[in-house]
Amino acid sequence: MQKQQLLYKGKAKSVYETDDNDFLILHFRDDTSAFNGERVEQLARKGEINNRFNAFIMQKLTDAGIETHFEKQLSTDEVLVKRLEMIPVECVVRNFAAGSLVRRLGLEEGQALTPPTYELFHKDDALGDPMVNESLSISLDWATKEQLSQMQELTYQVNDVLSEIFDAGDLMLVDFKLEFGVFHDRIVLGDEFSPDGCRIWDKKTKKKLDKDRFRQSLGDVVEGYEEVAKRIGVPLD
Ligand code: TMP
């Protein structure tokens, strides 16, 4: 598969065309951004760690019968994926209260959400990814009712598979965000799963080991990602 021209440069990944219209190459960069791109820093090795982390998780999800766009890791910081027609809706599951939910409702950070709760956000940087709902997503033709219900079911399945994996590493999967797209009429998991798009805490100490280390200027951001990777068995070299 030949890498061709740059199709799109996101905040942390660049997307390249290939000589096959059904496949793209994602390049995980070291750029780390917060507050909708207001703060951007280069964190050495982050691209490589996220690429390896994502490959490991996507393989676990594939093994569990969840279809993903992941095809094959091409290099330390590049992956070959299926080309999806992305649905501009971000699917979030929360097992414990944190982030925007805490700010919105004044909850205590870490409060268990039983059963886990599910939220949708519209993927739109200019608007700061506003919260939306299923009804609006259908009215605005972002997805059909059937697609949205499949996305919800798949996101909960991902939560079941991954909560167990993190739990075995003495970690709490607090929340995470997924993006889906359509590939030959099927709903397929796209984008990435890495500590950039989820919250992971140490079970005992509640130490944050995800992108909140960057958002909250806690330091040792990449070290946090590496700690999680090691505990769940991601091969780092
Ligand atoms: P939030 O608390 O900021 O709403 O985020 C919930 C989870 O989803 C958290 O793990 C971060 C992730 N997320 C992203 O990675 N990108 C996004 O655009 C959104 C809305 C959430």
Report on this model:
With 237 residues, the protein is of the alpha+beta class. It has two domains: 80 residues, Phosphorylase Kinase, domain 1; 135 residues, D-amino Acid Aminotransferase, Chain A, domain 1 (2-Layer Sandwich). The strands form three sheets. Strands 8, 9, 10, 11, 12 and 13 form a six-stranded antiparallel sheet that branches. Strands 1-2-3-7-6 form a five-stranded antiparallel sheet. A hairpin with a 2-residue loop joins strand 11 and strand 12. The two termini are 24 Å apart. The model has no long low-confidence stretch (mean pLDDT 98). It binds thymidine-5'-phosphate. Thymidine-5'-phosphate binds next to strand 8, helix 2, strand 11 and strand 13.
Biggest sheet features: 6 strands, antiparallel
| Rg value | 17 Å
- Work out the helicity level: 25-40%
Distance between the termini: 24 Å
Q: Identify the CATH homologous superfamily of the largest domain.
A: ATP-grasp fold, B domain
Total separate domains = 2
Summarize the structure.
The protein is 30% helix and 36% strand.
